[in-house]
Amino acid sequence: MRNPKSFYLRTYGCQMNELDTEIMAGILKKRGLEQVQEEENADLLIFNTCSIRDLAERKVMGKLGQLGRSKKRAAIIGVTGCMAMAKKESLFKKLPHIDFVLGTNNITDLDLVLDEVLKGETQKIKTDLKFEENLDYLVASRESKTSAHISIIRGCDKFCTYCVVPYTRGREVSRPGADIENEVRKLAGEGYKEITLLGQNVNSFGKDKPESKELFHDLLYRLDKIDGIERIRFLTSHPVDITYELMQAIRDLPSVCEFVHFPIQAGSDRILRKMHRIYTKSQYLEKVALLKETVPGVSLGTDIIVGFPTETEAEFQETYDVFKEIGYSVAFLYTYSPRQGTPAMRWQDDIPEEVKEERHQRLLELFHETSAKEREKLVGETVEVLFEKRNKTNMLKGRTRCWKKVIADGPDSLLGTLQKVKVHSFNHETLLGTVIA
Ligand code: SAH
Ligand code: SF4
Ligand code: F3S
């Protein structure tokens, strides 16, 4: 096989996958390959996949099937990410034109696997469930020069009954705090202003390494001290593990943004129990109350699944009501999708798709209403925006500390800087404003 000179990487799924893509891009660039944006021009194609819902998998399978049918040239094709872990060898049966499959915990092996494929070995596969702590995060080649994703804990130990992640990413492994600090210092030196700390459950950070005595809030104190980093964000928080110490850190540390994404998933205690979320609605509401009291002006984000097996109309209504009561600024709303290998597969997927879709629509309408009201309240106010890029209409685009999108007119010199913006209007998703000199 010909030594590849260029590569094309496509990401599906969450921020963790986006970061893994940036690490793979770094490994390939170090090898001397050039990244291209058009798959037609690449000698190596990698699809970094997601398995969270059936639709996510179908998108990739469709794409890969189409590549096989039209494979005219000798590009090397690799499948990485969560679907590689969920489907393993069976991918080669369905898609015989794939050259390698590399799991979420085997990114370090990318070089090795490529060498083997170049030597003529076929259908190479590495899908370890256990993460060995030998990944070189510093090699990552990031798209943004302003805002960076940082992995602080990989895997998940929570085993919600509907979710594939514990099977596609393995057990929780925290990264040493000193390594994280080192990477953030390097990024600050390169001019990055914002970091987002990533984990399926960032609040578990440190619990698998009791000897280090550093928990998630301790890590925030450590990173807040780094000069140049103006904003620290983190995703995602499991409600059970949100501590008062964390709330105090959000309140007291200047760089930590006042926004917490901690998914409720459902509002009915029976469904929450069946989901194995290990909290009740009232326990969740207690956390919300304490958070709002401790961190004035805090914004909240959530994920919700509707149409979980056996969910009644009354139980959906409980989700609707609690969603309305809390008033989220950010919400990702999903219809339940049964996943192979998860405990929820033992229950019949008994809610008809039309009913799931209708519940989804009702919640979506409520969210649009409440979030429009939230944006309306900000008209006339001044907000702090970190400008990241230009949008299609050539306006500067950025976000507030609480994750609201803002666009404004201005010169390129404002890109990568924090600015005060006076909001004059808003539309479907975005605030529109004027930069105040
Ligand atoms: N670790 C994060 C989120 C991981 S996946 C957390 O626990 O909050 C992102 C979201 O996808 C989940 O919060 C959930 O709302 C949704 N999701 C996961 N599995 C799903 C499934 N089988 N069907 C529908 N939505 C699902
Ligand atoms: Fe999945 Fe639950 Fe883990 Fe989140 S906490 S990744 S939903 S198992
Ligand atoms: Fe998808 Fe894996 Fe992320 S299943 S959502 S890419 S952790």
What would the keywords be for this entry?
437 residues; alpha/beta; Rossmann fold; pyruvate-formate lyase- activating enzyme; OB fold (Dihydrolipoamide Acetyltransferase, E2P); 3 domains; six-stranded parallel sheet; globular; binds S-adenosyl-L-homocysteine; binds iron/sulfur cluster; binds FE3-S4 cluster
Concise synopsis of the structure shown:
The chain is α/β, with parallel strands linked by helices and 437 residues long. Helices cover 34% and strands 22% of the residues.
Strand content: 15-25%
What's the shape?
globular
Q: How many distinct helices?
A: 13
Helix percentage range: 25-40%
Outline the biggest β-sheet: 6 strands, parallel
End-to-end CA span: 58 Å
Give the CATH H-level superfamily of the largest domain: tm_1862 like domain
In the CATH hierarchy, what is the class of the largest domain? Alpha Beta
Rounded mean pLDDT is: 95
Bound molecules: S-adenosyl-L-homocysteine, iron/sulfur cluster, FE3-S4 cluster
* CATH fold topology of the largest domain: pyruvate-formate lyase- activating enzyme
Query: What structural category characterises the helix and strand content?
Result: alpha/beta
Flag low-confidence runs.
none
